[in-house]
Inverse folding.
């Protein structure tokens, strides 16, 4: 049986928290459309995320991210997998909260490191691919995740299916 969800669902969390995998499972279970903000940005800009950072810098990327988020919420209801830094702008948090529920995927710095250490497309970690830096950035962002979230799900040592199921129980 498909689960019933009557709002948009935003998955937030640090890079490597599992937002992409969990959102796919959730969309399947809830029979909802899935939108990934990074993919949406890449399509709109005709460039990969690292290329956008290289050419135009983080501030430009953040502005596009906000513009895209607004477009996404103006369309049909969906599960939205958000880029890890989306919570850093209060405007984005307001947009998400007005449109639906915000689920924070909580993950330890060690788990994040194991998941992203070989990644070539995480410009925010370029030149800093180590646990210490991940922990520092995560600590800086934690108050923003806390402010944005409606609920929090731990993803360490858990299957994608179990995480998606727990989110559905909350909704
Ligand atoms: C970012 C996370 C990335 C992407 C961009 C910036 C961040 O998304 O939006 O590289 O600031 O944490 P993922 O969380 O999907 O890796």
């Amino acid at each position: 049986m498909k689960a019933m969800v009557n709002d948009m669902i935003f998955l937030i969390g640090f890079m490597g928290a599992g937002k992409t995998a969990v959102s796919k499972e959730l969309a399947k279970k809830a029979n909802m459309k899935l939108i990934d903000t990074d993919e949406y940005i890449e399509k709109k800009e005709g460039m990969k995320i690292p290329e956008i950072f290289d050419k135009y810098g983080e501030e430009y990327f953040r502005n596009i991210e906000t513009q895209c988020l607004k477009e996404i919420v103006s369309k049909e209801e969906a599960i939205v997998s958000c880029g890890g830094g989306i919570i850093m702008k209060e405007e984005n948090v307001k947009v998400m909260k007005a449109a639906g529920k915000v689920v924070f995927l909580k993950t330890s710095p060690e788990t994040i490191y194991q998941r992203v250490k070989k990644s070539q497309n995480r410009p925010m970690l370029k030149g800093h691919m180590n646990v210490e830096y991940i922990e520092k950035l995560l600590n800086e962002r934690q108050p923003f995740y806390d402010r944005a979230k409606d609920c929090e799900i731990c993803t360490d040592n858990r299957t994608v299916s179990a995480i998606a199921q727990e989110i559905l129980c909350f909704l």
About this structure: The mean pLDDT is 95. DSSP finds eight helices and five strands in the chain. The CA atoms of residues 124 and 162 lie 29 Å apart.
